[in-house]
Amino acid sequence: MANTIPDIPLNDGNTIPQLGFGVFQIEPKDTVEAVGRALEIGYRHIDTAEMYGNEAEVGEAVRISGLDRGEVFVTSKLNNAFHRPDDARRAFESTLSALKMDYIDLFLIHWPLPTRYDGDFVSTWKTLEEFQRDGRAKSIGVSNFQVPHLERLAAEADVVPAVNQIEVHPYFTNEEVRTYDRQHNIVTEAWSPIAQGKVLDDPTVVDIAQEVGRTPAQVVLRWHVQRGDIVFPKSTTPSRIAENFQIFDFALDDAAMERISGLDRGEAGRQGPNPDEFDYVPS
Ligand SMILES: NC(=O)c1ccc[n+]([C@@H]2O[C@H](COP(=O)([O-])OP(=O)(O)OC[C@H]3O[C@@H](n4cnc5c(N)ncnc54)[C@H](OP(=O)(O)O)[C@@H]3O)[C@@H](O)[C@H]2O)c1
To answer: Which of 89, 118, 124, 179 stands the most exposed, by the fewest C-beta atoms within 10 Å?
Structure first.
């Protein structure tokens, strides 16, 4: 079985590689090397954000890789401080200039911030629609949107988000949001797919890894992709960057899939902030 990364179709006609490389918490000084390593191994999808502070280094790594711009799918996200339309326009321009790119493959609202900006994330979304119309964002989407947030966009905006990037891993399977996404032709991207390492010594995961002769991280990442979600594990460790890439040359059977899904702890399993309450805005 060859380790070929599938392209997932988006609702706007574009496609996205199902496996990418995440750069949250990678220091700018380490980013060129980590992303360069990932591109060398074969990753063709990088997930960054303005708030990660390493967009410029992601752009540099893509440029020095020697790959054509069109061969690498790049995602970034709007800084929480810039939801107002004019701020969002300026922030999007800074993202493109930091990356030194004239378009981005996917641009997301990073958090809905329902308790900020008078609860208005709709005008922010409509501003992203402009970026897609003028071609500078090939696809647009959201991150950390809960079902009521998505319902509100469906009622008040024209474009359905191409993706919703949300926390998903075996301890927090986030089925309610995933189900809404699936039913409305929105692709789910699973952030912190290995719960920042916390699920890797779970006895069920370790047992399955032994049974299939793979590592715990490979088993968990494989569980995600068999569920149809997009993943972009982060690592600055070269051997792990390579390990996390080898997940398309084996399969988990239904029983193993169910055992991993059974680890869900509901809300208690959430590792990151609850998007209904999260209100962080950088000063
Ligand atoms: N939209 C959002 O709000 C949001 C929030 C969080 C994350 N994200 C995105 O999702 C990406 C991934 O999430 P994440 O960075 O939070 O966490 P993650 O990918 O679940 O886990 C990363 C951690 O696991 C370790 N690790 C990676 N591969 C491993 C392996 N094979 N074996 C053992 N340990 C391994 C890494 O350590 P080393 O680096 O030391 O190897 C790092 O500490 C982010 O980089 C970002 O792009 C988005």
So the answer is: 118
